[in-house]
Amino acid sequence: MARKPLIAGNWKMNLNHFEAIALTQKIAFSLPAKYFDKVDVVVLPPFTDIRSVQTLTDGDKLLSRYGAQDISPHDSGAYTGDVSGPMLAKLGCSYVVVGHSERREYHAETDEVVNRKVRATLKHGMAPILCVGELLEVREAGTHVQHCTDQLIAGLKGLKAEQVKDVVIAYEPVWAIGTGKVATAADAQEVCGALRAALAEKYGPEISSAVRVLYGGSVKSGNISELMKGEDVDGALVGGASLDGEEFAKLCALA
Ligand code: PEP
To answer: Residues annotated as binding site for substrate?
Structure first.
């Protein structure tokens, strides 16, 4: 099955709402409108910028697609500082990053919490971008494929096969995030292929061939074409390089 490539820019905790507007406009004006028929381009701003990005949406152009970097597993209530699925859906979000390694590390998010967030995202009609990836010591021990597959299966626990079709998976080796040390195309394909095979085993070939699997970790315009040569690599989750409008648009154009 032909899968539409997806390039998602994770802005992390960067840019105030004025800067978010400027960057969004820069990306939108740097790519021809018909480009978005071919590739889905998504921005993932901090919560405080989502409303500003929403005001720039325009029909089916780039910025009809944006999302959030986290979600509460709860719909409402006494959870100070958290943002819920109904709030994000109301703001027009299409995607939510779930289980990013920075959330797992700094907020002690377990696979169980990640699974609840995946379910909360789907419940409110948005697509989770479920991140999995190994630390350097896991790769050095040679158990990275099993590690990532385990994270994937735990993150999807309890979902029906037709729900899994709407999930985007991002393979993000932790040692490659923000370090400038990008995985080789063969490394990326090895894990992305194994994740798709695990989906096929559990949910069947129709589902596994529909799910988009991204690579993330020091992606930039200079390495995106090579990384996307892998038959199971359907795009990228991009951190640092998504903060520079010119560079991000160039990267998207090469995807
Ligand atoms: C990320 O934050 O998901 C990421 C991949 O960051 P970077 O591209 O900066 O490595």
So the answer is: 10-12, 178, 218, 239-240
Give residues (CB < 6 A) around ligand 1: 10, 12, 172, 177-178, 216-219, 237-241
31-45, 67-81, 105-119, 236-250: segment of lowest average pLDDT? 31-45
Residue 214 sits in a domain whose CATH number is 3.20.20.70
- Whether residue 123 is contained in a domain is answered as yes
In a domain, residue 15? The reply is no
CA of 217 to the centre of ligand 1 (A): 5
Residue closest via CA to ligand 1's atom 4 equals 239
Backbone phi, then psi, for 238, in 5-degree steps? -115, 125
33 part of a folded domain: yes
Q: What is the DSSP letter of 176?
A: G
DSSP character at residue 99: S
Tokens of 3: 């899968």
Q: Print the domain residue range for 194.
A: 27-70+81-253
Which percentage of the chain shows pLDDT scores above 70?
A: 97
